Structures are given as C-alpha cells and as structure tokens.
Amino acid sequence: MHQALYRKWRPQTFDDVCGQEHITSILKYETEQGAFSHAYLFCGSRGTGKTTCAKILSKAVNCEHPVNGSPCGTCASCRSIDSGAATDVLEMDAASNNGVDNIRDIRDEVVYAPNALKYRVYIIDEVHMLSGSAFNALLKTLEEPPAHVVFVLATTELHKLPATIISRCQRFDFRRIATPVLRDRLLHIAKAEDITLDEDAATLLGKLAQGGMRDAISLLELCAGARRPITTALVNETVGLTGRDALLSTVRAIAARDYDALYARIDEVVQSSMDLGVFWQDLIAVYRDLLVVKTTKKYAEYLDLTDAEQRTLGEVAALFSKETILYHRQLLDQAYLSMQGANALGRVTAELTLIRMCDETLSTTQEALLSRIAKLEALVLSGGISHRAAVQETPNPEDDAPNDPAPVEPSGEPTQAAAIEPTATQSVASQAVPSKADDAGGKRVLRPIRAWSEVVERVTAQNPMAASFLGQARAYTEGERGVLVRFENQFAQMMIDQGDTKDMLRGALSVCLQREVREKDLVCEVLPAAKQASSLDEIIEALDEE
C-alpha cells in the first residue's frame, strides 16, 4: 500500500526535526536528565511538527537506551510505539472526541500503572476543540497526575484554551519553518526519492507551504505525479498559480494604463486552469512586497526573493508612490471580498477594479485623492512642473501702492509672464495656481491656504453657524498680503459679511498665517458657477494648460 511522503519522511528523532531547534534542544535535555514535565503544551500553525515531537517524546521517555535524549528506535519500547501496538501511548483527536465523557475515561484510567512501558503518555491533538465541561474535568488530573503519566496537548489555536489549562503545562511555541529550511529538506527528500527538483522550484514550494513542512512535502508529491522534472513552471501549472513575472507585468500595465494588457491578462486567467481568486491573492501579495520595498531599506530581510527578483521588484516599486500602493491595495481587498460573495461575477469585478486602479479620477475616496496629490508632489519635487502666471492685477484703491497693469497686446494676452518654479520644500497644495481668466482677460496668482481647516475650527468656537458657510468656501493668498475667500453662493457671503463675523475670520487668519490680516487685505467674493471645481481639479487643469 502506498504511503504518503509526509508520513514516510516523518522525523523519528529530535535531531531530524527541522526548524524547531529551540524546542528540540530543551526536550532532549529534559529526557536525557530524566527531568521531564508531567504536562506539555505544543502550540503553533499546522505542519510545524507538534504531533511529530509529541510522538518522539512518547518514545524518548519510554526508550530503554536513549541516545543524547532521543529515542534509539531499536528497543522493544520504541518498536512497539512505532507499530502502534503500545497500549500505554494513547493518541486522541479532540476534534471528534471532545465530550466530557471522553475526558472522564482518561481520568479513570490514569490511576492504573502502565501495562508494558515505563510511562503512560496521553497525546491530545487539537485540544482547543474540547468542550467547556471537558476542560473542567481535565483540570485536576492535568495539575496533579500520577507519577507514571505524561500529558502532551497540541493545538493550532492557543487563544481558545482556558488560562487554567495553559498554566498547568510546560508551553512550547512552534514557529513557522523558514523557506530555506523547507527548500533544503525538499531537495533532500527529492534526491532520496529519485525526483528531479529544481532549486527554484523547491524555493517556490517552500513559499507556498507558508512555513508548514507537511504542506511542503505534500505539494512536492503532488507535483511529482506529473512524472517529469519539477520546475517553477510545473509548480505554477499544477497548483494553479500565476508566475511572478506575469504578476509584475500586470502591475506594470496598471502603471502604464495599458487597458488592453489588463483585459488580456484577466481573459488568460479565466480561460486557463488558473483560479481567478488565487490570481487575485497573488496580486495582493505582490502589492505587499511593493509596500515593503517602499517603506524600508532592509526589505531583503522581509522578502523571500532572489537578488534578481529583488531588483525587478525595486524597479516596479519605483513606478508608484506609497499612497498609490495603499490605494490599490484597498481596491484589491474590496474586490476580493466581493468575489467571495454568492453569485459574484469574478471576471467583471476584477476588470472593473483594475480599470479603477489605472485612473484615480474615477474614485472620490480619500485614498484616491491622496494618490493623486502624491503624484503632483513628486512632479514638483523633481522640477517637472512650472506654472506660468501673469503678473497683471487690477489696482485696488485701498492699497498703499497700487500695481500698474501689465501692457497688453491686441490679442489680449500679457506681453510677459512670470514663471514660478516650485522649490523642493514646497508641496503642491502651496504652489501658485492660476485661476480662470477674469472678465478683463488677465489672470490672478492664487495660492490655496493649507491651514484653512484650522481657520474654520477657530471660527467654529466663536460662531458655529458662520463656520458652516466657511467650511464650504475656498481660501487663497493673493500677492504678498491679500487673502481671497470664495463662496459658492451670495447667501453664504452675506452671512459672513454681517456683524463681526469678518473680524473673527481675520483674527483666525492672522493666527494661522502668522501675520496680520488687515481689513483691506481680506476680499470675499462669490465663485461663478463655471469655476465651481475642487482645488485639486484647479491644480490639474493648470498643469494641463502647460
């Protein structure tokens, strides 16, 4: 009868256990010195060696000739435990035997001496599945068992165990096994089983196992069923994965807004044997890697990638800002949840999401706006933006030294224009923004006030009603001292002009701008309907004009 590889290659000694040296070294010392505990708690994710170590421990405490704390495997006790004939080693699955009656049977049995071995060992797997009454029945026995009894509890969900159970055991936390350790073990098994396995394919299998040795060996056996050399292409084909190169090309297509390539990619996934949900999970994982590259200089320590893959990932990450990556990740997560719903149209959801990822203007969420702003800031810092602003302004009779209008040619355009180059320390929100042409044909240089929300908060403390109208307005600095506040309608402007509201506004502006805003400096006006667009749109329109 065929035996699965993960059972065939199950470690028989503590030295054979991979990736858990921090645990096996202690267990070897305890069994060698005969100072082992009466109850052990093994916790950790699946396939990391909990049950394996429990079985090795049951042999070690009963072995007639232990070798450096590990069972010899040749004595009568070891052979009987390996064959399953030892009645003194009982393994119980708490998932199917979780009632109080099962624990009462154990409680009644522990009083009897072992039949043939030195110690009676109870291995309770998935112990978190026991009922509350079963845990209560186990408490006293677990705390003070007879000298000839050893309990070994194993669980994948430690948080479900009562604190009273945990406190009565010697606890060991099994870590996820590192990918290099999994790779080396798979290569060793493949060589012994006469399976041709590429090192890159072994690394990929280790990543897919997510730290579980059992899963890694099972995937190896699955791929070996193809009866041909195991390569990364074969692993992707067998497991239904999308290759990393294909995923990165998808991300590049998003950056380039190549809609044809994106539609083609989704069509390829749907038409092939690959699962669209798996493809989407892989795409989310790639964005996680991109975020790691963008946020830390030591990203190689957190990514299981080759040097070539790290360089390629760095090149792709340079195409996006952190804000854009977070925005895309949010869209991917939302789409994945939608795909899990009943009767969900996975292909439609995937295509619509990729299109939204290409064009932030299709979304009005805060994350989309932050992504758009980050792109503009990057252009400013690189010196790729220069705003042309006319210096012509309408003289203000209240100014101390009114400016003369710039000479105008018959075409109506100013003869000279000032090119305002942003510095590296300025953000897009504070750059000069040319407004739409006035009736006279000139342009006014306006800079959005970034602290406007703070101004509104200060006015709110004194006049909440007036502040509600200010919250819908837009404010700019004009020239060296001027402040322009634009309202959406005449009624809003009238509410600000009445009483002492304007004085409150000037006081708040003076504090936030850190300079005195005189009465003649503050101008309020109604924004024409044609100009009622967002501040971000005004910036983008100004850039488009160049």
SSE map:
Blueprint: H1 5-8, H2 21-33, E1 39-44, H3 50-62, H4 76-83, E2 89-93, H5 100-109, E3 120-125, H6 132-143, E4 149-155, H7 163-166, E5 170-174, H8 179-192, H9 199-209, H10 213-224, H11 232-239, H12 244-256, H13 259-271, H14 276-295, H15 307-317, H16 322-340, H17 346-358, H18 366-381, E6 387-389, E7 418-420, E8 433-434, E9 445-448, H19 452-460, H20 464-470, E10 474-478, E11 482-487, H21 490-497, H22 501-513, E12 522-526, H23 535-545
Helix pairs in contact: 2-3, 3-4, 5-6, 8-9, 8-10, 9-10, 9-11, 12-13, 12-14, 13-17, 14-15, 14-16, 16-17, 16-18, 19-20, 19-22
Q: Tags for this entry?
A:
546 residues; Helicase, Ruva Protein, domain 3; alpha/beta; Rossmann fold; 23 helices; Zinc Finger, Delta Prime, domain 3
Give your account of this protein's structure:
- Helices cover 48% and strands 10% of the residues.
- It contains 23 helices and 12 strands.
- It has 546 residues and is α/β, with parallel strands linked by helices.
- The strands form 3 sheets. Strands 2-3-4-1-5 form a 5-stranded parallel beta sheet, covered by helices on one side. A 5-stranded mixed beta sheet has the order 8-9-10-11-12.
- Helix 2 (21-33) runs parallel beside helix 3, helix 9 (199-209) crosses helix 10 and helix 19 runs antiparallel to helix 20 (464-470).
- The relative contact order is 0.06.
- The protein folds into 4 domains: 5-174, Rossmann fold (3-Layer(aba) Sandwich), CATH 3.40.50; 179-239, Helicase, Ruva Protein, domain 3; 244-376, Zinc Finger, Delta Prime, domain 3 (Up-down Bundle); 393-405 and 417-545, GMP Synthetase, Chain A, domain 3.
